[in-house]
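Quick review question:
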């Protein structure tokens, strides 16, 4: 039976004050349950390190509170349930039983659920930082009951739920933050393209980024560096030109175009007489990040993508390649030796030397001329040529 209090008496005002406090307290617990639990540890760490000064202060206050999310959840729910269950007791002393139920449900629904959760969902960071000391006190008060329940949740659901994004999700998130998406993002098109490309790079192989060998400009090792060949090299505009032997698929190395500055087209020197750099071969299944790491070592900026079709194509354990798969080509870099009679090719080489010595007035020309005045030596380059059993797909640079 309801206990009746006289209106405007001491007990009446005490009951009204307790009812208001319980409604506000239940609303605060309900709002914090949504506001704090919706903030993941990753979001708070990002705000604490790279947010605005105001957000940094708020995140630093909230982080210690939400470290143990299950303990915080149990504390907030227990306090919310205690407030809602106590409210009808004080209402029952003022109104009838059905009136107490009706009023408590209305107050809890409106002021304890809808309004607090709407406000905390929008300003959860600021409100959570403001009441963080109160939440800490409540955690200690409810600790004897909330801690065992939180440990049970840790055992059943796991400890911590870091909301980390996968690569595909990060790519979509970056695109949404672009100014072209129309959502107020600050990233430009170039920035989103670069970030998305870096995220996709780990999923791509060498075969996905290669240039088909049919579209690649290359020269034969037996060709001559005459005016026509030099014009072709200049027209293509590449800093490196692949060199092949007999067939365009047999890439044996590359020449640097800058090394051809001292070559005169009238000398018609063979390609084999200039420095040919070794080009690495990589399988088409090699990840692009691995290739990028190899390029960053500085050994090469170009690679040849090959396809392994047979197990017999793999290099044997002793380190020697099978005879039926390879053959060697000897390339003479400078064949002039003392005591040998001069040939027409050698006379042209001497003329080229005299022409080059006229450039002493240019920067670094003394160093280059000194190289021509030095002793002639013979350099033999052994080039390994893979036959059609190990077909080369393309050049990659």
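Suggested answer, residue by residue:
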């Amino acid at each position: 039976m309801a206990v009746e209090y006289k209106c405007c008496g001491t007990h009446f005002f005490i009951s009204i004050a307790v009812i208001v406090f319980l409604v506000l307290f239940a609303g605060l617990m309900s709002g914090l349950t949504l506001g704090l639990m919706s903030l993941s540890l990753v979001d708070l760490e990002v705000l604490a390190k790279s947010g605005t000064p105001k957000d940094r202060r708020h995140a630093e206050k909230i982080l210690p509170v939400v470290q143990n999310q299950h303990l915080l959840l149990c504390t907030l729910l227990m306090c919310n349930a205690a407030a809602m269950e106590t409210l009808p007791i004080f209402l029952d002393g003022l109104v009838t039983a059905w009136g107490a139920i009706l009023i408590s449900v209305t107050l809890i629904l409106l002021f304890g659920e809808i309004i607090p959760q709407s406000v905390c969902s929008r300003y959860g960071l600021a409100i959570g930082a403001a009441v963080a000391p109160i939440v800490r006190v409540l955690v200690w008060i409810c600790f004897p009951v909330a801690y065992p329940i939180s440990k049970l949740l840790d055992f059943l659901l796991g400890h911590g739920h870091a909301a980390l994004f996968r690569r595909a999700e990060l790519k979509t998130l970056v695109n949404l933050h672009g100014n072209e998406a129309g959502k107020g993002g600050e990233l430009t098109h170039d920035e989103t393209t670069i970030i998305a490309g870096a995220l996709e790079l780990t999923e791509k192989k060498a075969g996905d980024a290669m240039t088909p060998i049919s579209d690649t400009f290359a020269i034969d090792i037996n060709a001559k560096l005459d005016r026509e060949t030099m014009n072709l090299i200049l027209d293509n505009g590449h800093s490196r030109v692949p060199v092949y032997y007999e067939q365009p698929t047999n890439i044996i190395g590359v020449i640097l175009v800058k090394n051809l500055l001292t070559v005169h087209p009238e000398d018609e020197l063979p390609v084999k007489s200039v420095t040919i750099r070794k080009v690495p071969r990589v399988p088409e299944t090699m990840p692009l990040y691995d290739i990028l790491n190899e390029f960053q070592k500085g050994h090469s900026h170009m690679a040849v993508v090959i396809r392994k079709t047979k197990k017999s194509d793999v290099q044997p354990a002793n380190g020697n390649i099978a005879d039926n798969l390879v053959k060697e080509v000897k390339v003479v870099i400078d064949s002039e030796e003392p005591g040998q009679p001069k040939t027409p090719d050698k006379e042209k080489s001497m003329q080229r030397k005299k022409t080059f010595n006229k450039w002493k007035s240019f920067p670094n020309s003394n160093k280059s001329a000194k190289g021509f005045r030095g002793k002639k030596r013979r350099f033999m380059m052994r080039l390994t040529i893979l036959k059609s059993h190990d077909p080369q797909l393309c050049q990659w640079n």
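Why it works: The chain has three domains: 10-157, 167-201, 206-333+379-396. The first strand starts at residue 211 and ends at 212.
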